[in-house]
C-alpha cells in the first residue's frame, strides 16, 4: 500500500504498505528504480510472521531503504483492525494500497483437500472483502488500489457456461461472486466438482477460482470507489521466479515489479477497473474465449 496523491507534498500523509515481504513486490524494488526508492513517502512492509517481516526490513535497511513495518495477516480480522488503527492514528489515511498476499500449491496441481481449497480461497479472495471493509475507507480520494491477480484470474479460465454468463453480467454483485466461489467449494466438499468446468483440465483449481473472483471483485470495487476518483485495477504479474512457483518463471522479481510500479506511480489515474497483463497491456477480462488462461505446462517448460 502506498500513496499516489501527486499534488500532496506532505510526506506524513503518505502511507505505503506491502502485504508480504518475500514477494516480488519487495525484492523487486530493492534496487534500481524500485518502489522504495521512487516513492516519496512512507512505505509500509507487512507480513503475517513478525520475525520474518522484521528480518526483511533489516535487509532493506542494509541497502539504505527504510520501509516501516507492521504485522498483517489478511485472514485475521483483528490483525487488519490493528493495522488499520495504527495507520489511522499515525498517518490518517492511505494513498496507495497493494493487495498481494496469496497462496498456491504449485507442486500438487490436482490433489488437495477441501480444507486446503478453503484456505486458498480465504487467503486469496475472502480476505479482500475484509480489507475492503476495514482499509478501503482509509484510502484517500484520488488514491490507487492494485489487486495482484494472475493469469488464473482471467475469465477465460472458466469453462462453465452458467458462470461465464453470470460473471460477465454488467449488473454483477458481490453475492454472485461469493456464490461462484461457494459453488466450487461445495463441489469439492461433495466430490461433485468436475475439473472440466475450468480451463487446463482444472489444474490449481482453488487458486484459479479465487483469482477469477478477485478480478471480478476488482470491477465492482472500481464502481464503488468511482465517485472518489480512486482507481482499482487487477493485474497478472507474469510467471515469476518466487517461492510460489518453486523458482520457475520467465521473470525475476525486479522485472516483475516494473508493471506494478508503473500502475502505482506512473499510469494515468483514468486507468480504472482494468485487468492488466505483465507487459502493461490492458486486456478484455470478459473475453472468455481468449487464450490468456494459465497453462500448467508453463511450470514445466520454464524450468
Ligand atoms: N510468481 C508468479 O509467477 C505469480 C504469477 C501470477 C500471480 N502471482 C501473484 O503474485 C503475488 C505474489 O506472489 P509470489 O509469487 O511473490 O508468491 P510467494 O512468494 O508465495 O509470496 C506470497 C506471499 O503472500 C504471503 N501470505 C500468504 N498468506 C498470507 C496471509 N494470510 N497474510 C499475509 N500474507 C500472506 C506469504 O507470506 P508467508 O511468507 O508468511 O507465507 C508470502 O509472503 C500473489 O498474489 C500471487 O498470486 C504470482
Automatic annotation (TrEMBL):
Stated name of the protein: Carbonyl reductase [NADPH] 1
Top-level taxon of the source organism: Eukaryota
Annotated GO MF terms: carbonyl reductase (NADPH) activity
Database matches in Pfam families: adh_short
PANTHER family cross-referenced by the UniProt entry: CARBONYL REDUCTASE (NADPH), CARBONYL REDUCTASE 1-RELATED
Coiled coil: none
Organism field: Arctia plantaginis (Wood tiger moth)
InterPro entries linked to this entry: NAD(P)-bd_dom_sf, SDR_fam
Family recorded in the similarity comment: Belongs to the short-chain dehydrogenases/reductases (SDR) family.
Keywords in alphabetical order: NADP, Oxidoreductase
